[in-house]
Amino acid sequence: MGFLREYWSGVRPFLLKFMIDLSVVGMMYVALLFISYLGRMLPIPGWAGVFFEYIHSAGMLIALVIFLILFVNDIYQTKKGETPCLA
Predict the structure, then answer these.
(1) Within a domain: 60
(2) Structural domains in the chain (count)
């Protein structure tokens, strides 16, 4: 039982940071999906419609990059001991 408690205390800070980063990016995905559905419900002709499609496509890639940057930064700061555990 001591091994599991020691393992959990080592993994817990990383898991909490991961869940926070995942929720931030999840909100970005929801906003981008809202833009996509709005574009389907209210089609915009011409270059403006294409622009909104590009925002959605680029936003998905940007959200993934932001998630990776946040998570790697959290791992680095947690290893250095700069950020306190939230729980």
Answers:
(1) yes
(2) 1
Amino acid at 57: S
By residue range, what is the domain housing residue 81?
29-87
**Does the global pTM surpass 0.70?**
no
Per-residue pLDDT tens digits for 37-68: 887 888 888 888 888 788 888 888 888 888 88
Q: Identify which of 20, 28, 35, 37 has the alpha carbon closest to the alpha carbon of residue 63.
A: 28
Report DSSP letters for 19-80, one per residue.
HHHHHHHHHHHHHHHHHHHHHHHS---THHHHHHHHHHHHHHHHHHHHHHHHHHHHHHHHHH
**In-domain check, residue 17:** no
